[in-house]
Every structure is written in structure tokens, then in C-alpha cells.
């Protein structure tokens, strides 16, 4: 083991140690529960911890593995789920005080697949209400603390806020988030993780509370690219409960994972997109491009037909429209305890007509075709993940969004990976955003793996949380 504390192992390291008999699932779960007890009261990452059930599952896994009845490499490895993912009989609040006692009627397909692979769901992670927001704040259920600043309460990123904090703080080896406009990638970026936004339909969203059913995708939040690749592999596959999965064939991302980037042609965001990017974020991005060039990639400027801001505005309109369809009755009821920051975001969709909605969908198809044409000859587009490092919660302008670079990926129905690529003078993570065409997760992971192997940013741990 690379660390004397099992809680600091990556999911792959933990799996290897369990399979080799050097670590038992009970020891791993106990180490994680000990860290949760020590740190989560302050971090507020978990909405619920399934302490007794997790330990019982760990004991069962330990006995099965010792008896030669292990069910695969992930048997006994814990995971956290975003609190919008149903597990039958358990409370799933979707980040809303209104649904504080909502008991899930079913189990999400992705949760079932994780459990069938032998993983232990250790708990549910906090989220922005209705998963509607990129900052990670929640007025009523509480805002998780970004673990990279021990003094100032900084944004964890959203909406998969708790998922990001649980992994970054070593409370769990990996977690599941969901991404509608950046909600896997923003918290992964600000918490120093690898986060994969998968192509729509590559992972089932059945049993996941919808915000924008056109855009919603679940995805891995991990400490390494390899872990992200493994978790993505488990999530993949057709599901009769989610029609979007029927047209996608599961892809094996591992044959290409370690091929490096030599010979790949990578697009670098256009000069105009650099405006408004924090200087330290921009310096880390430029350094990342140099690393990939030194590794053999050909990097050239690539301008898409529209700016990131233009794509982002269109996503915001679509999320508002479909979000209003799903929870409009709740946000319009002033007697209900709905987050005052979330309510107006969803009410943006209240006055959208069917004609406007259909026009938006038509525009999206036009934009997808034009962007694909612009990407011809390129293997990926590189941008920073965010404009800035994680801001102080007290300084956030809730009328704005941190999803500047991420939303375009959802709009174009592409995939993307973020990986840590630096640190500010005050120690906050920065992140590289690797954008690829739809169903090309293998290339995004390949580039991320090559970058990760050439650097050591993914090895950093938040300060002040012990070892």
C-alpha cells in the first residue's frame, strides 16, 4: 500500500490490496468511517452515512473473498453517491428541504450496477437543490466546504458538491456525480480531482432525479484518471429504463489508455477565449499545453463556430426550460422552502413557449453539426476547466455561473475530462479541461492519463486533514 492509512488509497490501489489479501474491506470501511467522524462535521460533504450497512457489507465481502467467492475487482471498495440518485427505501432529498423525508421508490440503474460489481455504498453526498447550480451552495441543507482552504469557506463547486469533497478529503476513494452543464467537472476542478462528463446515453440516468433530461449525465469523480476509466466501465451499458442508452455500444477505454499523446492533434482554445480567465489559471493552462507538446502532441489553436459564452447561454435556457417542467410547481410555490438562489434559475423557464423550446432544440442540432465540422482533424479541444479557482462562498455572485467552459460540452453532446494541472499561490487547485467528440471518452481519458503521468498534481492532498 502507498499509504499507512487505507483511506488514502485510490480505488485501484484499494482493489489491488484487497485482492492480494493485504487489506480487508472491513479495514478500509473502518478507516473511511473514522475519517468521516473526524472531518465531516466541518466539511458537510455527506447528506447521509450508511454506517451500519456499510460495515455489514464490508464484513460480508471480506468473508466472500476469503472463501473464494469474490465477485470482481471492486468487491469491498466503497463509493459515495450524489443525493439525487435513488436507492429504494432510503431517503433521497435531491438537496431540497421540501423533500427531506422523501423515500426513494426504486433503485437507480447505476446504483444497482455498482452494487452488483461489489462496491459498498457508504453514503449519499450533498448537492445543490435540484442539482441546479455550479457554485455548490445550498442555503437550507448546507454548503460543503472545499477542503483545500482550512480557513476560508470556499465553494466546493456544484452541483455535485458533496461528491467532490468526499473524494478530495479522502472520505471515500471515489464518487458518482451528475453533469448537466458542468456539475461533475466544476467540483472536480475546484477539489483537485479527475472528473469525467460522459456522452449522453453512455451511462443510464434511470433513477436519477432529472433537471434537464436532454442534458443530464451521471459520471465518475475520482483521484486518478485510471480510477475514472474503471468507474466509467462499470457504469456503461444499455438500459431498457433509459432509452438514450439504447443507441450506444459500451466501449473499452483501456486499450488506448496508456498509448500517450504522440501523434495526436490537440486544439487549444482561441485567443478570444482567454479574456476573463484568472492569471494563475491561465498560467497553469499554458503550462499544461507545453507538457502535452513535450509528450509528442501537436497543439494548434482551434476556434469553434461560437464562443463558450454563447454555447453556455443556450444551455442555460434549455436547463431552465426543462427544469421548470420538472419542478416548476415547487419553485412557484412561495410557501415552500426552496433555495432563494435556485428558485430564479428555474423560473427562467416559466415563460418559454413550445415554439421557443423547439427552436432551441433545432438550433442545438445546427450547432452540433457546425462544431463537428470545426473539429475535423483534431482529436480534442483544450481549455481551462473554470475561469477562476474556487471563490470564497461569501464572495459569490449567485446571478452568475462558473460553468463558462463546461456548458458547451453538454450543448454539443460531447464528452470531457478534467484533471488537476496546478495550484495557485494560496494552494487552490487549477484544472485542465479535455473536450472530445461524443462517445470518444477513450481519447479524453488517454490524454488525461498521459498528462497525469507527466505531472504530479493528482498526488497532492488537501492540507490539515491528517494522513
What's the helix and strand layout?
Blueprint (H helix, E strand, L loop, with lengths): L10 H9 L5 H19 L2 E4 L1 H16 L11 E5 L26 H8 L3 E6 L35 H8 L6 E5 L5 H7 L2 E4 L19 E6 L2 H11 L18 H4 L7 E5 L9 H16 L3 E5 L5 H24 L11 H5 L6 H21 L5 E5 L22 H6 L2 E9 L5 E8 L4 H14 L13
Parallel strand pairs: 2-3, 2-4, 7-8, 7-9
Antiparallel strand pairs: 1-3, 4-6, 5-6, 5-10, 9-11, 10-11
Helix pairs in contact: 2-3, 5-6, 7-14, 10-12
Walk me through what this model shows.
This protein has helices at 11-19, 25-43, 51-66, 109-116, 161-168, 185-191, 225-235, 254-257, 279-294, 308-331, 343-347, 354-374, 407-412, 441-454; strands at residues 46-49, 78-82, 120-125, 175-179, 194-197, 217-222, 265-269, 298-302, 380-384, 415-423, 429-436. The chain has 467 residues and is an alpha/beta fold. It has a single domain (8-307, 369-459), classed as Amidase signature (AS) domain (Amidase signature (AS) enzymes, Alpha-Beta Complex). A hairpin with a 5-residue loop joins strand 10 (415-423) and strand 11 (429-436). Helix 7 (225-235) packs antiparallel against helix 14 (441-454).
Amino acid at each position: 500500500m502507498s499509504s499507512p492509512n487505507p483511506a488514502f488509497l485510490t480505488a485501484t490501489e484499494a482493489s489491488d490490496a484487497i485482492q492480494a489479501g493485504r487489506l480487508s474491506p472491513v479495514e478500509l470501511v473502518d478507516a473511511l468511517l473514522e475519517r468521516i467522524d473526524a472531518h465531516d462535521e466541518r466539511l458537510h460533504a455527506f447528506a447521509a452515512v450508511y454506517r451500519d450497512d456499510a460495515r455489514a457489507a464490508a464484513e460480508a465481502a471480506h468473508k466472500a473473498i476469503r472463501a473464494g467467492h469474490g465477485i470482481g475487482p471492486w468487491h469491498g471498495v466503497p463509493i459515495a453517491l450524489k443525493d439525487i440518485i435513488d436507492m429504494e427505501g432510503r431517503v433521497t432529498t435531491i438537496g431540497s428541504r421540501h423533500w427531506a423525508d422523501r423515500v426513494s421508490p426504486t433503485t437507480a440503474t447505476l446504483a444497482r450496477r455498482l452494487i452488483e460489481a461489489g462496491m459498498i455504498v457508504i453514503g449519499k453526498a450533498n448537492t445543490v437543490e435540484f442539482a441546479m447550480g455550479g457554485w455548490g451552495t445550498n442555503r437550507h441543507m448546507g454548503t460543503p466546504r472545499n477542503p483545500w482552504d482550512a480557513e476560508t469557506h470556499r465553494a466546493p463547486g456544484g452541483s455535485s458538491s458533496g461528491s467532490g469533497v468526499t473524494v478530495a478529503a479522502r472520505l471515500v476513494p471515489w464518487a458518482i456525480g451528475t453533469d448537466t452543464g458542468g456539475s461533475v467537472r466544476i467540483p472536480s476542478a475546484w477539489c483537485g480531482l479527475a472528473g469525467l462528463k460522459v456522452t449522453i446515453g453512455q451511462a443510464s440516468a434511470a433513477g436519477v432525479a432529472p433537471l434537464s433530461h436532454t442534458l443530464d449525465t451521471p459520471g465518475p469523480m475520482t483521484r486518478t484518471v485510471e480510477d475514472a476509466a474503471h468507474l466509467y466501465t462499470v457504469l456503461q451499458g444499455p438500459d431498457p429504463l433509459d432509452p438514450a442508452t439504447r443507441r450506444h455500444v459500451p466501449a473499452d477505454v483501456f486499450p488506448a489508455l496508456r498509448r500517450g499523446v504522440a501523434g495526436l492533434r490537440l486544439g487549444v482554445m482561441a485567443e478570444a477565449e482567454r479574456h476573463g480567465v484568472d492569471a494563475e489559471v491561465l498560467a497553469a493552462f499554458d503550462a499544461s499545453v507545453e507538457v502535452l507538446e513535450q509528450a509528442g502532441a501537436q497543439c494548434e489553436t482551434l476556434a469553434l463556430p461560437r464562443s463558450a459564452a454563447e454555447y453556455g447561454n443556450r444551455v442555460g435556457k434549455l436547463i431552465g426550460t426543462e427544469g421548470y417542467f420538472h419542478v416548476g410547481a415547487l419553485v412557484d410555490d412561495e410557501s415552500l422552502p426552496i433555495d432563494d438562489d435556485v428558485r430564479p434559475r428555474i423560473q427562467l423557464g416559466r415563460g418559454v413557449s413550445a415554439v421557443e423550446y423547439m427552436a432551441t432544440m433545432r438550433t442545438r442540432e445546427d450547432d452540433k453539426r457546425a462544431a463537428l465540422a470545426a473539429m475535423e482533424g483534431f482529436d480534442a479541444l483544450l481549455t481551462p476547466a473554470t475561469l477562476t479557482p474556487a471563490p470564497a462562498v461569501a464572495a459569490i455572485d449567485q446571478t452568475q455561473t462558473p460553468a463558462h467552459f463546461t456548458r458547451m460540452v453538454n450543448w454539443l453532446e460531447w464528452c470531457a475530462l478534467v484533471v488537476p494541472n496546478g495550484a495557485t499561490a494560496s494552494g487552490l487547485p487549477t484544472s485542465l479541461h479535455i473536450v472530445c467528440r461524443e462517445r470518444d471518452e477513450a481519447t479524453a481519458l488517454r490524454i488525461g492519463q498521459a498528462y497525469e503521468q507527466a505531472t504530479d498534481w493528482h498526488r497532492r492532498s488537501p492540507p490539515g486533514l491528517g494522513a
